[in-house]
Amino acid sequence: MKLYHIILCCFSCILSCKAFNVFGPGKSLLGNTAYTPPPSKVSTCSWLDTLKYEGTPTFDVLAKTIEFAECTSFEEIEQFFDEEYLFRGPIFGPLTADDVRKTQQGFRVQDAFPNLQTRPFGFTVDPDNPYRCYYFERWEGTNTASVKIGGTEIPPTNADAKLPTHIMSLNWTPEGKIKYACLSSPLDRFEGTTKGAGAVLGLLVAVGVDPGNASVGDLFLRLQQRFLNSIEGFGRNWSVEADIPDWWKSKARGADPNDM
Description:
- With 260 residues, the chain is of the alpha+beta class.
- The protein is built from six helices and ten strands; from the N terminus they run H-H-H-E-E-H-E-E-E-E-E-E-E-E-H-H.
- The strands form three sheets. A six-stranded mixed β-sheet has the order 2-1-10-9-4-3. A two-stranded antiparallel ribbon has the order 5-8. Strands 6-7 form a two-stranded antiparallel sheet.
- It is globular, with a radius of gyration of 20 Å.
């Protein structure tokens, strides 16, 4: 197949997608205060289906998610955690609630930004799982305090930082507890002042630390994470196997590529 055939094929695919095609047909959403897509017609089987439950929630998932997102301390948010709670990010996790707390205590780059705000917005319940809620965060703050990383103390830059937007998702249990929290990679790597780095990595960039290549599958990062985990330096990148609940089936740890 020649190059222009490939380009034409790609362009045709883009035009067929409503997310890109501003000229294509489709029902106008102007004037609507909310939009919910039709129910999924694709039947799939996933190990994460264990986070789906029969019936509808007996509590307001949206309201509880907003309440959680507005918490400002770990002491507040841990009240929402299920006994089998796990956190997973693009290159960190799975982490139990206890390891999340220990990691925050051992690696306190957030303290370098006393006015740090996560600025959550855009809350929406998953149309395919009423127990899951998504929302955006766009962190910002001013680096007015020093931060100690290893044996090095980094003085404040006194500069403002705005991080690129990422998505959070929370999976609730029928008892109103969070069993799984997931943080996404930045949505737009050109947004903000941290060269595309988000969340904690973005704060490191803001204080003047180069976190290096923080990509899923990067061999050096994976080896580095395993070394730090073995000495428990800067907290854990993922919890010890014995502490990870049985419902979590993936064996991918930290920056490992997906295994299922």
